[in-house]
Amino acid sequence: MGSTEVTNVEELDALIIGAGFSGVYQLKRLRDDGYKVKIVEAGSDYGGIWYWNRYPGARVDSHAPHYQFSDPELWQNWHWKQRFPDHKELREYFQFVADKWDLRKDTYFNTYISSAIWDETEYKWIIKAKDGRTFKATFFLPHTGIAASRSVPDWKGIKSFKGLMVHSSYWPHDEPDLKGKKIAVVGTGSTGVQMSHALSEVAGELVVFQRTPALPLYMKQVDYADDEEPIPKSELKEFFKARDTGYWGFDFGFLEKGTFDDDEAQRRANYEKLWKAGDFTYWLGTYTDMLFDSKANNEAYKFWREKTRARINDPKLQELLAPEEQPYPFGCKRVPLERGYFEMFNKPNVHLVDVNQTPVVEVTEKGIRTTEKEWEFDVIILATGFDAVTGGLTTIDIRGIGNRSLKEKYSHHGPTTYYGICIAGFPNMFFSYGPQAPTAFCNGPTCAEVQGNWIADVMNRLRRAGISSIVADEASEKAWGEHVEAVAYASLLPRAKSWYMGDNIPGKPRASLMYLGGLPNYHEKLRSCASSGYKGFHFEGLKV
User: Fold this and answer.
1) Which end of the chain is more exposed for a tag (fewer CB within 10 A), N or C?
2) Tens-place pLDDT, residues 322-348
3) Which residues pair with 186 in a beta bridge?
4) What beta strand segments (E) does 94-154 contain?
């Protein structure tokens, strides 16, 4: 497009969207490097998804001390109360970070960005907020994350319900009184699993609506005394080095052997050891072929099924919750962690509705009608997820070279990026925790630092060289996309319908949203790109 006339503009070197781990780290790093930079955040405080996620039972399932920044100024002065911190403790952590890093002076809360348009004559982004404010920035950094755009079922009559209906990520800040209420939870992803168990403790009646069974792992929670730490602070410096080189951004990765390298007794003993860890190791620290070989995957599923069925009394529920026939490859839909999810179905006031057997017909004034009956509720909670990974970008009207719309590009071609960090045709725009990067297969703070540092290094390179803009070329973007797909299709991931593949949003092109090659491989590709002079990018606008 041509030059865009603007008035009353705040001019910046960079504008960041999102005050979660990625945005907060990017602000800190860029400010340290001398840039004039601000964060805008739709919520009224820091935390990203943890500002919004405050539903009953909400907690992170990356175990401490993984889920934090590696800055010694922070970890030397922070104490985790639990191995798996809940949403309240995570917001407390963000408050602590904001104070230590003095973030508030450069943050605008309650600010929703509606558009970002590249001005080709000035080599700047013109970014507008819904409240009328305008920013002009050399770099546009939408760190919107994987869960910025909610997904709601397109059910007949969904607006007719007279009780409380709420999406899990819009949980009221003033906690509603749910004691003794008739409650529906729609969805059995990570949120649905966490929430259902918590609600079963207070509900008069709880009904869980399931389309696909979740395959969660048991969470081994630990409460830490004031003088206890997950790992001694004297060891944390080395721990963070190991975390940064781990396949998944944790300090552990696959075992260095395949499933059938062990005999049955050895394999069972190993499964037991991984299971007792009570974290992600049964999923992400197991045999190296588990996510890539059907027979190996089935062995993991069979052990999971045996452990799970032993916790469920009713044979019919055993079949619905832990089917004899494997419903999809284990670990190829998001694996939640839980504490008592399966046992709650043994309670007389907890029910499971399989919407495959009895589909939802409509929402009524009183509740939800299936082909079997009308269920009456006081509260309906939609744990129905998000337009994951890409939704945070496409809800903003982002226009690059030639006024090309990002939303239109993605609607026609699916998610396309270069290195999962930028998009061809959109100069000086970078993001982290986005499509075609490790993202959901990477510990969040680890990826925030790896990608945030690379973005800052790119900006420093342009500043030193006196160059105005950098943009990925289409051929390089296409090659990266083909590589991401090749890695995905070498695994079992595409054999499951999941948000990893964009399957949860009707009409969304099916493609792998995740890079499964592991964080070390991904990090090496970023380093190689930088050391080659940013091969695959074009530079424009030499300043004189």
Assistant:
1) C
2) 999 999 999 999 999 999 999 999 999
3) 209, 382
4) 107-108, 113-119, 124-129, 134-142
